[in-house]
Design a protein that fits this description.
Arc Repressor Mutant, subunit A, two-stranded antiparallel sheet, 6 helices, globular
Amino acid sequence: MAAPKDPRPCSIADTLALVGEKYSLLVLREVCLGNGRFDQLVRNIGAPRDVLATRLRRLVDAGILTKRAYSERPQRFEYRPTPAGLELEPLLMILKEWGDRHLRQDGDRPMVVEHSCGHELVPVVTCRACGGEVRHEDLTAHPQSPGWTVSGPTAA
């Protein structure tokens, strides 16, 4: 069987192509924390200015961030998450939680996020239909792209 010319169609791959680069997710972290000015982003992320400018342009073009002027002379902009950008915030919380649990053996967490209930946020993924926590053993994938199964491409 000949392999397909293109990899599996996948929304994960499409999303990673847009926000999977480290600085893109760190930009999103900062704007969700309210730090949307370019100089704040440079300081808090540590990205080179030219790389950061490219990432910001891409995130604005994709509708993840908005850009608005806060100063005319000199012209300066700040970035804020759009509704689509805010939908990515739970992903950041999951990544933070995973890092705290698996990369911080000393227990020294760089940040704690408090939920509006007053308790520390410990994010979990739940099923919208039943409210149950999502666990690997409870999932069944159903490929929808023609010519693809869970194990890979079908024979031509």
